[in-house]
Amino acid sequence: MQKKYHNEKTYLDILDINPEPIGLFTFPLSKHIKYKNQLKLIYENASNDLRQEFHNEKNVQHICNISNQNLFNSFSELNELKSDLQKFVLTYIEFLGYECDEIIINSAWLNKSDEKSTLAYHNHCNSYISANYFINYNPDLHSSLTFRNDRASLGRNQDFPFFKLKKSKKKSIYNSDVINIDANEGQVIVWRSNQSHGYFEPNKANGRMTLSLNSLPRTIDDGLYKFTISE
Questions:
Q1: In terms of residue numbers, what domain contains 96?
Q2: Nearest residue to 213 via CA among 82, 117, 97, 26
Q3: What tens digit of pLDDT does each residue of 52-103 get?
Q4: Distance, CA of 216 to CA of 231 (rounded, Å)
Q5: I need a surface site. Which of 39, 76, 207, 208 has the fewest CB within 10 A?
Q6: Does 155 fall in a domain?
Q7: Closest by alpha carbon to 217, among 103, 88, 125?
Q8: Which residues contact 151 (CB under 8 A, 6 or more apart)?
Q9: For helices 79-96 and 29-45, angle between their N-to-C axes, nearest 10 degrees
């Protein structure tokens, strides 16, 4: 709630409804260093059949970023990291007030983004919760992950008449087209997969490395209807 007084008798309350929760987890430094070394080694030595480059992403390379590949299935040495990330997702779901006993990471991949690269805004289908682990990341040189504000005009793509006001010089979370997440190396951002994310600001240096994942509850159960997902 934001409160602004107009005078002695009247005041304004701004109530934030329908908030969008973004989780930000931080690995202990010792664990991050261990995982960073493992992931950098994997990136350097991965076979060509596990590598991808897409024509619409300049200066970006991926490991295991197609539907029949999963980083954790290809590299068993990452089992501890996988377990930690599953715990992060479960904690996030529990914090939101929902019940979930087990999470499947149905896709996971490495991203290495070099100088001048950007990431077009997108969301993730066939997923409930997504996450991004900052493996090698300098916020002064590498682009931060941002989320589209679906209450602002950008990204709404209305196919009907609508009104739009000129934005004032005062910047707020309400008139910002995108919301920046100030993450650091060793942190993991967690969000609901339908949220549009990316970055327009190009990287200023090589070497931005992240691990992305999509996940689903193994059992979907709302108390009336239920089904179980197998890997």
A1: 21-145+181-228
A2: 82
A3: 999 999 999 999 999 999 999 999 999 999 999 999 999 999 999 999 999 9
A4: 10
A5: 76
A6: no
A7: 103
A8: 174
A9: 120
